[in-house]
Amino acid sequence: MPFLSKLKSVFCCNSNKYILDDDDDDVASIIERSSESQQEEEEVSEKPLLSEFESKFDSPTTRPFYQTNQVIVKSVLRKKRNASVSSTKSYSPRRRYNILLFGDNLTAGWVKNEDGYGTYHPYGLRVQKRFEEEGLDVEVTVSGVPGECVVQSMEERLKHELEQPGKWYDWVVILGGTNDVINGYSAWDIYDGLKKLYALCSKHGARILGVTIPEFDWDLVNHLDYQRRIVNEHLNVYNNSTTRNAFTLFLLDKFFPMQSLTTEQRRIFWDYDGVHPTEDGYDLMGDMIFDLLLKEGSWD
């Protein structure tokens, strides 16, 4: 069985576990059992068209990833449907559904390549592919700004996304806060900023999948990790006090860990910079988030 297919069978068969905060499963050992097979067979997937958003730099050190810049990685990933498009299910949905994946570099899918420059492999690629495999007419839009902070500009940018003429979103997945922690913003300010994003989505009639801030391991900012954990604790409290059909929280920090992995597991799923996933890591994120969306949403 291909490598990521084995991961899918372990992580993505029961989405209930992704939203339970009292489950003490050893996720690292699950990853270890799943990663003992040979290299994954190459998977063909259409990359989003990012050329108009690319920004080149003279040196990989001229712009650290955590500094805000004007590169906006935005792409609609849905392919045009035609009679030749295969699916695993025969039923046809009554209408198209729209999902917005909104956030920073982790939504943009930033991956450092061998020459030190960034390329993009959004987890949305996997989300879009999985919906197509289900035979569902779902359009996934990725909108990520590498280096962006929740407390600086996300609110205005999200408002602009939600108010596009003739556009609506059934779901908005919000992943942000890593850059805020790294840049020294307080946990309360980050949490307050995230709540404003959730309120905007609710105002526009979209259901929200909030995502906790994942772990990082970077010597310069490891002393700030407590702020990350406080934000996630606040998000858990918010989730428990919010109607399930309006807001769902995905515990990314728990089900896609970094610190508890073995050296080999970490090499597969996380970049050596201690912040960004690898392409395999983004694909795993996409599988997990897809499973939650499929279970929590209504896709008639």
Automatic annotation (TrEMBL):
The keyword Mitochondrion does not apply. GO terms for molecular function: phosphatidylcholine lysophospholipase activity. The keyword Ribonucleoprotein does not apply. It comes from the Eukaryota. It holds the Pfam family Lipase_GDSL_2. Keywords: Hydrolase. Coiled coil: none annotated. InterPro entries: Ester_Hydrolysis_Enzymes, SGNH_hydro, SGNH_hydro_sf. Gene3D superfamilies: SGNH hydrolase. Residues 101-284 form the SGNH hydrolase-type esterase domain. This is GDSL-like Lipase/Acylhydrolase. It comes from Rhizophagus clarus.
